[in-house]
Amino acid sequence: MNERAKASPAPGPKILQLQWLDDQELLLNFSGFLDEASDFPTVEGTWPEINKHKDRIRQVTIDCSKVQSWDSRLPAYLVNFSRKCDSAGLTLSSRALPQGIARLVKLAAAQAPASAGPRQEEAGSLFFNLGRMAVNSRQTLLQLFAFCLRIIASFLSLLQGQLNFRKQELPVLLHACGSQALPIVSLLSLLVGLILAFVGAVQLKTFGAQIYVADLVGIAMVREMGAVMTGIIMAGRTGAAFAAQLGTMSVNEEIDALQTMGISPVDFLVLPRMLVLIFMMPLLCLYADLMGIVGGSMVGVGLFDISFVQYLEQTKDAVTLSNIWLGLIKSLVFGIIIATAGCYQGLYSGKSASAVGLAATSAVVTSIVCIIAVDGLFAVLFHGMGI
């Protein structure tokens, strides 16, 4: 045919020429200096000529044997042209590519998405979405159950003296979860005591019984609010930090490195954090109880003409040792919940920055919801036991 002997110049005729090798094979021949000074062709400029004969083209061949110099525009052209050929169903081959370009093109093709169009989620029916949620929830629960079993196995190994972990990490975690949390625990517990005392005293004053504000604040803080407020504070502060730390380690493949070396991430990372929160939560709960009582005394003594000695005596008579132990038991359980939720979300987070942020958010939400739910269960249980 007549077109075989003809060369159809693309943009920049000295750089790229289109030539028919036979009836079904088209050659793209690059030559010369492909640098900033040259008028480099574009895929959009080349493709119309190819698109006119797309129905009869069996193969497109790229020849770079005559290229004397090149820059990053050449591999970019080749990658874009390769994607165009794939979408059009054309076979592309290359010959005499400059050193290094073949690897760049292959790497770019491997990293390219399967489809250039935007990904659209399949919109199923209501029952389909409910079924998918049920399957995902089942998988998550099974994964969480296996994670909890691994934690229990680590605790048993620790009690038997068969577990070695980084003991030098414990003081760092104790400082981060203990002394650094005192300012926020102090502030919020003091404010909670103030609010409880003020609300209770306003109502009790109508009966001339404002002295009982000490009973209200003392029992509420020791039995309920001290443990709950400490748990919520530590969930937002420490639980999120645990999830972010372990999630970042997962992104950096440090978790995979530990497993490759035969080190269990639960033993090495989760167990120290669990031990620290189990130890610190009851202490922080006692401190929160004290600050709440101090806040209540500020309102009772300052606004309702109750002497400080009277307030302390009334608090001592109202708060029993059983109430203190109930609050400490709750705080201990809350510490286990916070550490489990934070470490679980961190270990099983995705491999991106957004996944780490989502893991931290999920750890906080899960911890707070579980704390409130478990506190309600404790209230029903203790009431049934008559405590």
Radius of gyration: 35 Å
> What overall geometry do the principal axes of the alpha carbons give?
elongated
Strand order of the largest sheet: 1-2-3-4-5
What is the number of strand segments? Answer: 5
Number of continuous helical runs? 12
In a few lines, what is going on in this structure?
The protein is an alpha/beta fold and 387 residues long. It has helices at 43-52, 73-88, 101-111, 126-159, 169-177, 182-205, 213-251, 254-260, 265-303, 308-318, 321-347, 353-385; strands at residues 7-9, 16-20, 25-34, 59-70, 91-95.
Describe this structure in words.
The chain is α/β, with parallel strands linked by helices. The chain folds into 2 domains: 2-111, STAS domain (Transcription Regulator spoIIAA, 2-Layer Sandwich), CATH 3.30.750.24; 160-385, no CATH class. Helices cover 67% and strands 9% of the residues. It has 12 helices and 5 strands. It has helices spanning 43-52, 73-88, 101-111, 126-159, 169-177, 182-205, 213-251, 254-260, 265-303, 308-318, 321-347, 353-385; strands at 7-9, 16-20, 25-34, 59-70, 91-95. Strands 1-2-3-4-5 form a 5-stranded mixed β-sheet, with helices on one face. The longest helix has 39 residues, at 213-251. Mean pLDDT is 81; it is low at 1-13 and 114-122.
